[in-house]
Design brief:
The protein contains 11 helices and 2 strands. By secondary structure, it is mostly helical.
């Protein structure tokens, strides 16, 4: 493996990590605050990508498609949370409900958008390549990396510099105490679900431009997101970031060095971390 190829794979890992972070951070927030394992998160990613594809093709504007995908899935998340999850109590019923939603979203996507892979068109300026030392690398992937970093910083500000962030962190630590203090916990839940779902929709559009959209993409991205959250830690933003980097590098380089062990390399860290720290590397124990 020469230096140029190695650098290319490093940047591929970083850009994949940025996309995984966008998906997994929303998943981690919902799970951390609401204790809901939202198995529909992958379906939201896929439908958001398809909505963004349709809007981008209709308007000829990729950025309008990104906004439409995020807004539509954010609204869908609120409807699911308020219209369904509010009436279902218990871990297993919620898991089964979100699994059912995921299956419905997957089948709906197949009926509406077909079963062949589709790639979201991006603006001409993002189709160019840039020279980084000996490497010639696509501008769009660097754009996704920049979006991932920007969202990470914005979420840091939201969680640690705003009142809503304080409520979210308090909810992760002690949900019952937040409720006892008279905080409208349902409103916090709705805002968290809105944020997590919006991130899933945005990720679907951004990921659909270089990973493509196809039947099964929802389960693929959900599986990787679950590994990220489990390894990184429940409700931890830093954990989502570290877990995304770890999974992305193992996935990318595993397919290069040992393709026959690619899945083992992804799930192996989870098997190592769970017995030692069931709450993940950066997570706290769930009461």
């Amino acid at each position: 493996m020469n230096t140029t190829f190695f650098l290319f794979e490093v940047f591929n890992s970083l850009t994949l990590a940025a996309l995984l972070f966008l998906v997994a951070s929303g998943f981690a927030l919902i799970f951390g605050v609401m204790r809901i394992t939202n198995l529909a998160h992958g379906g939201m990613y896929l439908v958001g990508g398809y909505i963004g594809l349709s809007v981008a093709q209709h308007t000829g504007n990729f950025f309008v498609g990104v906004g439409a995908g995020g807004a539509a899935i954010g609204l869908m998340g609120v409807l699911i949370q308020r219209g369904l999850l509010d009436f279902v109590q218990g871990v297993l019923p919620q898991v089964l409900l979100t699994l059912g939603i995921a299956l419905v979203l997957g089948d709906m996507s197949l009926v509406v958008w077909g079963g062949y892979p589709q790639t979201i068109p991006v603006p001409d300026q993002l189709q160019q390549s840039v020279t980084i030392g000996p490497l010639i690398y696509p501008v769009y992937r660097l754009f996704v990396l920049a979006i991932g970093v920007a969202v990470f910083l914005l979420l840091l500000y939201l969680l640690y510099r705003t009142r809503l962030g304080a409520l979210i962190r308090a909810g992760v630590d002690d949900l019952e105490m937040v409720d006892a203090l008279g905080i409208n916990i349902k409103k916090v839940f709705t805002l968290v679900f809105l944020l997590g779902a919006t991130l899933a929709g945005l990720s679907g559009v951004l990921g659909g431009a270089f990973l493509s959209l196809y039947p099964g993409a929802d389960s693929d991205i959900l599986t990787l997101s679950l590994v990220v959250v489990v390894v990184g830690g429940i409700g931890s933003l830093a954990g989502a970031m570290v877990g995304s980097l770890l999974v992305a590098f193992l996935s990318t380089f595993g397919q290069v060095y040992a393709p026959e062990l690619a899945y083992f390399l992804i799930f192996g860290p989870m098997l190592i971390v769970l017995p030692l720290r069931p709450q993940g590397l950066f997570g706290r124990k769930v009461a």
